[in-house]
Write a structure and sequence with these properties.
381 residues; mainly alpha
Length: 381
């Protein structure tokens, strides 16, 4: 059997799905950030199709991440997670949280935080995808620790996903900032600019976890077929349930900051579309298995690619990049090749990073100390 089809530890088809999600995010961010105002009109064709597909990138990445975490977190014979795994997952989640805030640091140095105006804290505490993934992974780790079997994990994850789906519109009706501190309310409300709140986005991760526990029971040689078949079936089921719910909630004319994100029906529709996308991407993988090693490499470094493109496009608080310099100033024919260029740079950086880790045994520690030194320099020197 082809090594790439032996998916006891890793499924390259899902790595391909994460790669596609990352590439879609990069082109979406670049075109939206740099194209001249008025060009991108999401109320007309084909832009509303583009906007809908763009809205699937985060759910696709989160569902696949939840799915692969079931395989990545291996339990001991007693059903518990090894201490090293717990420490590693906790450290990764906290690192993503801190990195999310670091990329939008509100002052020149740490010492200046005491002197910045209170209004500056609001955009700094907005929740973006890195904070969302970090906090969601912490919750997932807690559930791994509370359960002893994958069956219990799957049931718990599915129940949490359903609860998030059902409560989503209710949560977005509550004025969280009136009784919660800014840094907590930002995880639940979009009123102050948060883009990726726990409701609904953590729900996508847990739908993926639930599917992952089912997929893990399937013999490795049958998992590709399972994804192709049941991705389509589950997709149509979720979409069929979501459409009437979406219309019902939309008809209530509730005062949502973002109708699409707060609507439970749209959450189910997006989940269904992601399941269908996973099925189609798995079909694509079956005819491109020779590229499996690249799918695995880039899928494993998906967050590295995401962070790289953020720095290339937006820069850091200490220096601007062309995303700010040419914010909504360029024609579409210029932003499309720029998006491709950022994709190539981000993928190339991930490829070089992974290759150097394998070629030079001490490179991992070098990168760790180098990145830490850069962060310390920017924050304190």
């Amino acid at each position: 059997m082809n090594k790439n089809n032996n998916i006891s530890d890793r499924l390259p088809a899902l790595d391909l799905a994460r790669c596609i999600a990352m590439l879609m995010m990069i082109q979406g961010h670049t075109i939206f950030e740099m194209t001249v105002v008025g060009t991108v009109n999401v109320n007309v064709f084909p832009w509303y199709v583009w906007e809908f597909l763009r809205g699937l990138t985060a759910p696709l990445f989160l569902i696949v991440s939840g799915l692969v975490n079931v395989f990545a977190n291996k339990r001991s014979s007693e059903g518990s997670l090894p201490k090293k795994t717990v420490i590693r997952r906790f450290r990764t989640a906290v690192m993503l949280l801190l990195l999310g805030y670091f990329l939008v640091f509100p002052a020149d140095k740490v010492f200046h935080l005491a002197f910045i105006h209170s209004s500056v804290w609001v955009p700094f505490l907005q929740v973006n995808v890195l904070q969302l993934i970090g906090s969601s992974l912490l919750l997932l780790l807690a559930i791994f620790l509370l359960t002893r079997t994958d069956k219990a994990l799957g049931i718990t994850a599915f129940v949490i996903a359903i609860i998030i789906t059902v409560l989503n519109p209710i949560v977005h009706q509550i004025k969280w900032f009136t009784f919660l501190p800014e840094y907590l309310a930002a995880y639940l409300s979009m009123e102050h600019g948060s883009i990726f709140t726990i409701f609904p986005f953590t729900g996508f991760l847990f739908y993926g976890v639930a599917l992952g526990t089912i997929l893990k029971k399937i013999p490795p040689e049958k998992r590709i077929f399972f994804l192709k078949k049941w991705g389509l079936i589950l997709g149509f089921i979720f979409i069929s349930v979501g459409i009437p719910i979406n219309y019902y909630i939309h008809g209530l004319n509730l005062n949502f900051v973002d109708q699409l994100k707060a609507n439970s029906g749209m959450m189910l529709i997006r989940t269904g579309c992601v399941f269908i996308a996973i099925s189609l991407i798995t079909m694509l993988y079956t005819v491109t298995t020779r590229l499996g090693k690249f799918y695995t490499l880039f899928g494993k470094r998906a967050l590295f690619i995401y962070i790289t493109h953020l720095i290339v496009l937006y820069g850091l608080p200490w220096f601007n990049s062309f995303g700010q310099v040419y914010h909504q100033k360029l024609p579409l024919y210029a932003t499309i090749p720029i998006a491709f260029l950022i994709q190539i740079v981000s993928l190339g950086a991930a490829y070089y990073y992974e290759k150097s880790l394998k070629s030079y045994p001490g490179s991992k520690m070098f990168y760790r100390y180098a990145f830490s030194a850069i962060i310390i320099f920017l924050l304190f020197v």
